[in-house]
Amino acid sequence: MSRTRVGIINVTGYAGVELARLLHQHPEVELASVTGRSAAGQELMQVFPHLSNLGLTIEAKLGKVDLVFSAMPHKDSAQEVIPLVEAGLKVVDISADFRLKDAEEYPRWYGFAHPAPQLLSQAVYGLPELHRAQLASAQLVANPGCYPTGAILALAPAVKAAIIAPEIIVDSKSGVSGAGRSLSLQTHFSEVNEDVSAYALGGHRHLPEIAQELKLLGAKSPSITFVPHLIPMTRGILTTAYAPLLPGKLASGKKGEEELRQLYLDFYQDEPFVRVTEAPPHTKHTWGNNMCLVYPTIDQRTERLVVISCIDNLVKGAAGQAIQNMNLMLGLAETTGLETLAVYP
Amino acid sequence: MSRTRVGIINVTGYAGVELARLLHQHPEVELASVTGRSAAGQELMQVFPHLSNLGLTIEAKLGKVDLVFSAMPHKDSAQEVIPLVEAGLKVVDISADFRLKDAEEYPRWYGFAHPAPQLLSQAVYGLPELHRAQLASAQLVANPGCYPTGAILALAPAVKAAIIAPEIIVDSKSGVSGAGRSLSLQTHFSEVNEDVSAYALGGHRHLPEIAQELKLLGAKSPSITFVPHLIPMTRGILTTAYAPLLPGKLASGKKGEEELRQLYLDFYQDEPFVRVTEAPPHTKHTWGNNMCLVYPTIDQRTERLVVISCIDNLVKGAAGQAIQNMNLMLGLAETTGLETLAVYP
Amino acid sequence: MSRTRVGIINVTGYAGVELARLLHQHPEVELASVTGRSAAGQELMQVFPHLSNLGLTIEAKLGKVDLVFSAMPHKDSAQEVIPLVEAGLKVVDISADFRLKDAEEYPRWYGFAHPAPQLLSQAVYGLPELHRAQLASAQLVANPGCYPTGAILALAPAVKAAIIAPEIIVDSKSGVSGAGRSLSLQTHFSEVNEDVSAYALGGHRHLPEIAQELKLLGAKSPSITFVPHLIPMTRGILTTAYAPLLPGKLASGKKGEEELRQLYLDFYQDEPFVRVTEAPPHTKHTWGNNMCLVYPTIDQRTERLVVISCIDNLVKGAAGQAIQNMNLMLGLAETTGLETLAVYP
Amino acid sequence: MSRTRVGIINVTGYAGVELARLLHQHPEVELASVTGRSAAGQELMQVFPHLSNLGLTIEAKLGKVDLVFSAMPHKDSAQEVIPLVEAGLKVVDISADFRLKDAEEYPRWYGFAHPAPQLLSQAVYGLPELHRAQLASAQLVANPGCYPTGAILALAPAVKAAIIAPEIIVDSKSGVSGAGRSLSLQTHFSEVNEDVSAYALGGHRHLPEIAQELKLLGAKSPSITFVPHLIPMTRGILTTAYAPLLPGKLASGKKGEEELRQLYLDFYQDEPFVRVTEAPPHTKHTWGNNMCLVYPTIDQRTERLVVISCIDNLVKGAAGQAIQNMNLMLGLAETTGLETLAVYP
């Protein structure tokens, strides 16, 4: 039986090259074609010496494949993806271009009018923990942003169970690879090493995604403040989410904590890539793999829910989740090719 | 004119050795005696080669001085400080032992009954921006904790002006030196490098300090959730504080932002060590010096105040602030010995 | 067919836990028993949350297995290993206790008289690139040190071809995980972050291993200076080796460089875990996998050989190489379970 | 008495901004004018928020000053410096443009014909430890490169005393700020964090400087291999230098080590910025200050000299040494403005 042929558009960013690494280890698909812009014509291994010889040359135009990952930047990605979808290919788009259901959000947050609003309803938001059933039959999957993945998985059980008021603070701490491989002073080693800073205080583009999904889970008019921070490490996002508990939903004291924990354990009981931890998790425990670790607790003094989540922003936050989605789309076991453990220490 | 003789109890922790570095550069006082426990008998420079030859040997018992810094751990520090205060010496206590006005907080947060509750009202909380007048005549100063320094300075103007509801989230990100020089797995390089984690989710000891001072500023029954995080850098604390704006206190839109900014500028207008910045600040911009950078803004979508503050946890968060307090206690110019700029990059 | 049962003595150090990670992914063996000292009685996953549920409890005493990895410290390891060898088990000893053929080196370098000198000739030095044939039939394998692995692989082709005088400088730069999981001030985050230092200038214990193997390759009375350095990263060793080229062995200029490169390519042509690179390699390109990257070049001005090698000290420098050795001992394909690519960036 | 007015050409690189930081603290000179290219017109403090308000705007053209620091890149720097020298100003050139005495080295190493070869003999190589007397009367000082500063100070006493054969290996490990503030993939955080690599294996431009100065100290036709490495930290260079000891120059064993140490102590006995250490030094012990730490030792097995030196590449390796030179040129005490201790940890 021949393996499904897959391709990567724009392999040369960090999401793209992480896809290549993970797909190389995938037993059921064949990475058959990769494209890049400035690097077109070079062998993949010359640009990325950590990849062993896949025999692939970076091409200007995608070869014949059955499923495509687009790792293009937003706006450009839609231009690549639209004709592929029309041609009947399956597509996982890593960019934001098909994540938001409301086309009017695109000019507001991304500064462009969406070129194919009719595809927005067709596209499935690729968070398997929430949309697994639809993903199995999806042709176009919008892979979630890195921050939304951590934030939504932290809050989903509580929102679904309606135990919190929708007054939500999401404070995220991200490694620098989340800012991509393009050069900038903000990602220059000497500037970001031994430093931490908040950014996008006027509103980060990942906010509407978080709001959209929490609303789908039942949050009424959620009021969400989301502040991302850049910290001096390469991989990982830790999200700390805060919200007031609604009175009477959980028992008081230790018993309430146990109920909360059970609620999370139940919600994620069959999830291969979410683990509810017994102690505050570390991003290091997800380094290089597709797990999301979630730790819910109660600040008893203030009756607030506090949830910590950890992911590797390039795996569960990008390439790993894309492959999880691909597995679902192709009818493969969801964990195929994603079984490796985190690399610690 | 002879310079005032000062001493350091327990010079061998990070706060103690930072005091030695800064006092060495202070033109008006003489570092005359330093003590240590396990290192007693060694020359200071042998233990800390970055210090040039101060001609000091680490002693088991403090020599004759006029003012003492105690850098002992909490509980032990009180034992050292009480007889010194009774003997009439001026003392700046870097530990938590005299920070809380309510003696009953000590068993609750620190696990011991306070040995000299009568001194708690006499002690002045050493945050010059709030208590400058009392510090000038203080005999015993309780130097604030590193997290409270950043959190209180972030929130003080807003609390004082009563523009926020007291539903406060304080999310702090600290470099590892804040955990001290004692060995632990949590501060072992390979464990904390490329990692971020939250800790003390059951309640951190710095919380009652923050609450105490915000109450003094006018916050009524504040409900504060404080979550500290450890990030892979040596120095620096960035605090992100969140609170709902009270309706009608600030104008809407850009005008409200300007009013907020002006309120902060006014509050800190004469402060030599607080700067209200025009852009989100970086801890790197305080590396090695005594500044606190504060950036207040409004999340317009949710009408929440968001304030970022940055300090070097070992300077404004410990040794530098202790010297600022000493300057006030000795009637010296407040900035004496603390003028060096941050070391960037 | 039942899988071979293997065990790990002292799973709680970094080499031990890395073995557990890699063995978990190995399709042909079953990790059946792990031991620890202070952690005995705890579930493996509680001590190391990055490991998924292997269903293993850390035991005080090893269970029934067919092959054992000892990750005990030197001297203690021999005590564990000797009875296992006598009982007929296959053993891969990660410690130094069976690496040196000359028993008299043990008191000199390790401070103890070897308890079983007769086993030293029986033990095979586990560098497959040099001793593959013997490893296939070995009962006791002495897994090489991390520094020797990088140094020997950098120099072996040149020594074997007798193109250099044996006046060798080995300057190595190691990540901090090489210093282990035991606490020390040298591995305390705030001490080693933003720092580099040389150590063991009086002679490092890995020197006799390097000398032993280079002599076996033909170096006559080699005069080797080896200086290790600690740099602020978790994983990786880069070794820079220097030696004078013997006159007349290689052509001059570019042609000599090509001859040198070809000599290295030929030497390592069938090696699955050594790659001769076209550009100076980065340790990052080996992060988490079993590759050794080697880059030989000539300093034309001085007619010296300069070779750079990179490994992950915990994989090719410890646990990965141990599994490579196990594969050979069990007659499995040498790369089994070691195919994952480096995690970049 | 009015203070000497000094200016900085190209303040916006790391050497330039470090000069601004240090000059701000200098009691005897006034930083009166700074220039930049792309940043011209902006306030200095807006580009570099760590600088307190110096009241300076970055200008396109230098204002009226008595002494100029040029922090321009090589080749461009000469164009700026030549007219200033002709106009009679004192100049400290941080670039390489006046370091090499032999004009023919410039096309060979830097790719341009020197525009003013007659100034090369007039320029003084600004390593005060070797050329102090000439610096006092110099009009044009060529500030040494960062690597040469560490390498020459490591080897000078041994070369001068003629105890080594001139078969020298210089293996240097540098923090990333040495690569400057210009963006490149090599200095992109995610690429260089958790990584070490060697570079410039074909010959680094700092080699001819090292050779020139060691020849002046008496080395006959030195054969020097110099390999620089980039390690994941911001500041600091550690250099490890190796050379064979000449027979009969030092006693054998411990006595020889003591003689060596005394030779270094004597050579540097009056130097304010070189300290011969008793243990292998750490770059951290020079973080932010102008010290060079030197540790000479003997590899007794091979009779080789091994010397470790540590500097902060932006201070003793650039801006601090430039101010040390300025102090000499202006007849000020050499240590003026450079007394601050290293910031540890």
Summed up, what is this model?
Chain A has 345 residues and is an alpha/beta fold. Helices cover 30% and strands 21% of the residues of chain A.
Oligomer classification: homotetramer
How do the strands line up in the largest sheet of chain A?
A: 3-2-1-4-5-7-6
One letter per element, helices H and strands E, the order of chain A comes to: EHEHEEHEHHEHEHEHEHEEHEEEH
Which stretches of chain A of 5+ consecutive residues score pLDDT under 50? Answer: none
Amount of helix of chain A: 25-40%
Q: What overall geometry of chain A do the principal axes of the alpha carbons give?
A: globular
How many domain modules of chain A? 2
Q: Please tally the helical runs of chain A, counting DSSP H or I stretches of 4 or more residues.
A: 11
Give the amount of beta strand of chain A, in percent. Answer: 15-25%
CATH topology of the largest domain in chain A: Dihydrodipicolinate Reductase, domain 2
The CATH homologous superfamily of the largest domain in chain A is called: Dihydrodipicolinate Reductase, domain 2
**Major sheet size, sense and barrel closure of chain A:** 7 strands, parallel
Q: Would you identify the CATH architecture of the largest domain in chain A?
A: 2-Layer Sandwich
Average pLDDT of chain A works out at 97
